[in-house]
Amino acid sequence: MSSVHKMKEGYLNILGLAPAYVVMLFMMVIPLGIIVYVSMMTSDPYGGFISEFSLDSFQQILFVTDWDDNLQLDLQYLNIIGRTLLLSLITAIICLCLAFPVAFYIARQSASRKALLLFLVMLPFWISMIVRVYAWVLILSDNGVLESVLSFLGLVDDMDSLLYNNGAMLVGMVYSYIPLMILPIYASIEKLDLRLVEAASDLYANRFNTLFRIVLPLCKPGIVAGIILVFVPCLGTVLEPMLLGGGKTMLMGNLIQNQFGVARNWSFGASLTLALLAIVMIFLMLQALRASRLKQQEQ
Asked: Within this chain, do residues 208 and 259 fall inside the same structural domain, yes or no?
């Protein structure tokens, strides 16, 4: 009777999870399978792809064919990948430096003030990303808000445009994704036992030692989660390079968009998508391995 009951529970569990499996199948597995299929097909010179097996799209990431059909190493796409990784990493670091004190301040407030401050942190998510990024175009452009304020204060007479460079893109990326860093760090600080901080103070630890030897290690899960939540979306960002970078600086998101749009080279766009996915998976797997090793050491 118990075995029959266990079988019924197993069937009920499967039925209960069936909607989630269906959603994952149609929203993740099938689209990913289509991307893999297209990446292994031959590019059509007139756009799209031809259903003939070919790995030329993956080869195109690293090599270019010269007039004699010889392969030559081409670093332009590797440079784009490297630039994307670098800007994403810098964005995550800046977000961490700005988000930690903000999250710590919010966590130390009263319950009513916490709710208000968290509402203000999440408020930008209620506004379209295009509107938020384009607002920085108005702020940083020639005769924009920033230049007008600085001129009114007499700090500058005439300044070069702050748009269409890596700095403008960084500003937009940090502004767009910093809430994703604040929220997980806040959740970790909220669970922090402040008696440990008081004990460190009683043992004559200064603020520097208390921060780096007690607070940061205990908040590490939230910090890691925040870095992942910021770093991964930055790898595929499109609006910031397009609007704030003026299309002059190409990142992976723009490159993939152009291949599926203007260039109509779907096979190459699919191969770039898989390359970006591989970078994300490697990053997440390294973090998972590191977490498992630390857990084994603690045991």
From this structure: yes
Bridge pairing between strands 71-73 and 63-65: antiparallel
The per-residue pLDDT for 183 is 94
Residue 28 and residue 141 in one domain: no
CA distance linking residue 208 with residue 197, whole number of Å: 12
pLDDT of residue 188: 92
| d(C-alpha 262, C-alpha 47), whole Å | 10
| Range scoring the smallest mean pLDDT among 6-15, 90-99, 178-187, 285-294 | 6-15
* pLDDT tens for each residue of 166-219: 888 999 999 999 999 999 999 999 888 878 888 887 777 788 888 888 888 889
Q: Give the number of other Cβ atoms within 10 Å of residue 76's Cβ.
A: 11
Tell me, yes or no, whether 127 and 257 share the same domain. Answer: yes
- Asked if pLDDT for residue 287 goes beyond 60, the answer is yes
- Provide the CATH number for the domain around residue 227: 1.10.3720.10
The domain in which residue 299 lies consists of 1-74+265-299
pLDDT at 91: 96
How far is residue 299 CA from its own chain's centroid? 32
Specify the DSSP class assigned to residue 246.
Answer: T
Shared domain for 49 and 113, answered yes or no, is no
Q: Looking at the structure, do residues 255 and 277 belong to the same domain, yes or no?
A: no
Distances (CA, A) of 221 to 64, 245, 286: 43, 33, 15
- Judge if 248 and 285 occupy the same domain: no
- Our count of domains for the chain comes to 2
What is the amino acid identity at position 59?
A: Q
**What sign does the dihedral 142-146-151-157 (CA atoms) show?**
negative
Question: Smallest Cα–Cα separation from 144: which of 124, 128, 164, 126?
Answer: 164
Structure tokens at 155: 């700090």
The C-alpha atoms of residue 81 and residue 74 are separated, in whole angstroms, by 13
